Amino acid sequence: METNKRIKILTNSGYKYEGRFISQDKFFIEIDDDKQGIIKVPLANISLIKEVV
User: Fold this and answer.
1) How far apart are CA 49 and CA 7, in angstroms?
2) Model confidence over 1-53: pLDDT tens digits?
3) For residue 45, what pLDDT is reported?
């Protein structure tokens, strides 16, 4: 996934994040969330990742 793309993440527990994609490794995806700043979300907890246009 390219940096500077905007994505929306929905976790298994119902949390929603939306912001600019920063990076991804085999355990985490890092985004600059609009409300919480830079966060790392564990891939195991993600139920949906969608690119926002």
Assistant:
1) 7
2) 667 799 999 999 999 999 999 999 999 999 999 999 999 999 999 999 999 98
3) 97
- Predicted local distance difference test score (pLDDT) of residue 4: 79
Continuous segment of H or E residues that includes residue 52: strand 46-52
30: helix, strand or coil: strand
Maximum pairwise Cα distance, the chain: 26
Distance CA 48, CA 29 (A): 12
Tokens of 33: 């969330």
Distance separating alpha carbons of residues 20 and 40, to the nearest angstrom: 12
What φ, ψ does residue 10 adopt, rounded to 5°? -120, 125
**Element holding 13 (H helix, E strand):** none
